[in-house]
Amino acid sequence: MMMFVVIALIDETRKVISDLLEALGMKVTLLASLGELQATLQEIPVSGILLDLITTTKASSLDKQSTHELIQLYPQVRFKIVGNDVLILGKEQSLERFVYDCRLFKPRTIRKSPRKIRHIAFILSADGTFDDAEKVVTLNISDGGCFVYSTREWNVGDRIWLRFVDNDAVIRGTVRWWQPWGNNKMIPGIGVKLDAEGNGI
Fold it and tell me: Are 180 and 164 in contact (CB under 8 A)?
């Protein structure tokens, strides 16, 4: 059963969308603010996030900044309630369609170590020769891992090599998850677990 996080300040809004999702056979975790999101994603494997427009508008700048990168890691939409109907904003789709599309996403939690936004340029290769390499940039890093923007095809378990642009230092790692190019809900790239020895960004 798929789990969705619904973030809405107003109790009635949470109830309306929760009832609709449960009628579709989904499990739901309800939050009243963006500030609750990080702790939730650390503990619960989530398939998608639904953000109430009013709640996101009223959220503090700090909450918006601290959760922006987290939200981008999951299929997500903004919505508003009109009567008993859920309107998905900026997309020509229904709640049912969003739930259907989320079936392609493997539910996951986020790591508990802090994730820092770091844009570091690398040369990415599927082997240590760098004969067929790609220019990439990290979007964020944490203890032992990073997310690398990439438009190539990857498989979970692939070994990768990252070479700094300004020197010959090389970091090795393993692909833990891959988001293909062309899914407009997600940034394309790979989640990489860095080898423990000889690495450090």
Answer: no
Give me the amino acid identity at 126: A
Can you tell me which residue has the tokens 């900026």?
90
Model pTM score: 0.58
Report strand pairing: 3-7 vs 27-31. Answer: parallel
Position 29 pLDDT exceeds 60 = yes
In a domain, 200, yes or no: no
> If you average pLDDT over residues 80-100, what whole number do you get?
85
Which tokens sit at 157? Answer: 């378990």
Residue 111 domain-assigned (yes or no): no
Where helices occur in 33-83 by DSSP H, the ranges are 37-43, 53-58, 61-72
Based on the fold, state whether residues 94 and 178 are members of the same structural domain. no
What integer pLDDT is reported at residue 62 of this predicted model?
73
Angle in degrees, CA 61, 149, 169, rounded to 5 = 110
